[in-house]
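re: ur question from yesterday

yeah so i grabbed the chain u mentioned. its 104 aa long if i counted rite. heres the sequnce exactly as i have it in my notes:
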Amino acid sequence: MKPLKIIVPAEIEFGEATRWYRDRDPRVADRFAAEARKALKLIEQFPQIGGLVFGIDDRHVRRMPIHAFPYNIVFVDLGDSIEVVAFAHHRRRPAYFMARLRRS
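ran it thru and got these structure tokens back, copy pasting raw so excuse formatting
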């Protein structure tokens, strides 16, 4: 299993999404957080999981949907670790997180 790191902008996005759901229904926020944790665990265990990111021609950059929510976790396999670069809402402009990608 490779170590997984969530970069600060992605942490902020996750916090904002969780707060948005919590303001509407704390139970939904809890489900969102639980589903995100499940997806992160799968990414950590299986770095080739998920799909390629449309518009990005790099097979190491992938997206994993958060089950039952309109979000993808966007991550990059750096070889010795995995870096989560975004918790991207499906309606957010595509590839807005490009500047966050780091390659080793």
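noticed a couple things. Helices lie at 8-24, 26-45. also The longest strand covers residues 82-89.
anyway ttyl
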